[in-house]
Protein backbone atom coordinates (compact mmCIF):
# COMPACT_ATOMS: atom_id res chain seq x y z
CA UNK A 1 0.00 0.00 0.00
CA UNK A 2 1.46 3.40 -0.91
CA UNK A 3 2.35 5.88 1.79
CA UNK A 4 -0.05 8.33 0.11
CA UNK A 5 -2.89 6.38 1.75
CA UNK A 6 -1.56 7.19 5.23
CA UNK A 7 -2.42 10.33 7.16
CA UNK A 8 0.20 12.37 8.98
CA UNK A 9 -1.26 10.98 12.20
CA UNK A 10 -0.69 7.43 10.89
CA UNK A 11 2.92 8.24 10.05
CA UNK A 12 3.55 9.86 13.43
CA UNK A 13 2.14 6.76 15.14
CA UNK A 14 4.46 4.53 13.08
CA UNK A 15 7.43 6.78 13.90
CA UNK A 16 6.62 6.52 17.60
CA UNK A 17 6.34 2.73 17.32
CA UNK A 18 9.71 2.57 15.55
CA UNK A 19 11.42 4.76 18.15
CA UNK A 20 9.98 2.70 21.03
CA UNK A 21 10.79 -0.62 19.31
CA UNK A 22 7.21 -1.84 19.37
CA UNK A 23 5.57 -3.81 16.63
CA UNK A 24 3.47 -2.46 13.82
CA UNK A 25 2.16 -3.68 10.48
CA UNK A 26 3.52 -3.26 6.97
CA UNK A 27 0.48 -1.17 6.05
CA UNK A 28 1.27 2.55 6.30
CA UNK A 29 -2.26 3.46 7.38
CA UNK A 30 -2.82 0.61 9.86
CA UNK A 31 -3.50 1.65 13.42
CA UNK A 32 -2.11 -1.53 14.97
CA UNK A 33 0.89 -1.21 17.23
CA UNK A 34 1.93 -3.33 20.14
CA UNK A 35 4.15 -6.10 21.26
CA UNK A 36 4.02 -9.79 21.99
CA UNK A 37 4.80 -10.34 25.63
CA UNK A 38 5.60 -13.96 26.31
CA UNK A 39 4.13 -15.54 29.42
CA UNK A 40 5.15 -18.55 31.47
CA UNK A 41 2.55 -20.03 33.81
CA UNK A 42 0.48 -16.87 33.40
CA UNK A 43 3.33 -14.54 34.40
CA UNK A 44 5.47 -12.34 32.18
CA UNK A 45 8.54 -14.30 31.05
CA UNK A 46 11.60 -12.93 32.87
CA UNK A 47 13.54 -13.20 29.58
CA UNK A 48 11.26 -10.74 27.74
CA UNK A 49 13.13 -7.90 26.06
CA UNK A 50 11.53 -4.60 25.23
CA UNK A 51 14.33 -3.38 22.98
CA UNK A 52 16.28 -5.31 20.36
CA UNK A 53 19.73 -6.56 21.25
CA UNK A 54 21.05 -4.57 18.28
CA UNK A 55 19.24 -1.51 17.01
CA UNK A 56 18.47 -1.76 13.28
CA UNK A 57 20.74 0.01 10.84
CA UNK A 58 18.61 1.39 8.04
CA UNK A 59 19.73 2.14 4.52
CA UNK A 60 17.86 4.74 2.45
CA UNK A 61 15.24 2.27 1.21
CA UNK A 62 14.43 0.76 4.59
CA UNK A 63 14.30 4.21 6.18
CA UNK A 64 11.68 5.21 3.59
CA UNK A 65 9.71 2.09 4.48
CA UNK A 66 9.35 3.39 8.05
CA UNK A 67 7.32 6.31 6.68
CA UNK A 68 9.38 8.77 8.72
CA UNK A 69 10.74 10.73 5.71
CA UNK A 70 7.17 11.50 4.61
CA UNK A 71 6.18 13.27 7.82
CA UNK A 72 5.57 16.95 7.15
CA UNK A 73 6.99 19.18 9.86
Structure commentary:
The chain is α+β, with helices and mostly antiparallel strands and 73 residues long. It has one domain. It is 26% helix and 11% strand. The strands form 2 sheets. A two-stranded antiparallel ribbon has the order 1-2. The chain is elongated. The protein starts with 7 loop residues before the first helix and ends in a 7-residue tail after the last helix. The model has no long low-confidence stretch (mean pLDDT 86).
The gist of it:
The chain has 73 residues and is α+β, with helices and mostly antiparallel strands.
State the main characteristics.
73 residues, alpha+beta, two-stranded antiparallel sheet
List the topology elements.
Blueprint: H1 8-19, E1 23-24, E2 33-34, E3 39-40, E4 43-44, H2 60-66
Antiparallel strand pairs: 1-2, 3-4
Rg to the nearest angstrom?
A: 14 Å
Percent helix range: 25-40%
Read across the widest sheet, the strand sequence of neighbours is 1-2
What is the strand tally?
4
The percent range for strand residues is 5-15%
Spell out the helices and strands N to C: HEEEEH
Global outline? elongated
Query: Which residue ranges are poorly predicted, with pLDDT under 50 across at least 5 consecutive positions?
Result: none
Number of helices: 2
Amino acid sequence: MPVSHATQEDLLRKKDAYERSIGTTHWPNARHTGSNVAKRDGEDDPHNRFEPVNRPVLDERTFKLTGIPYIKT
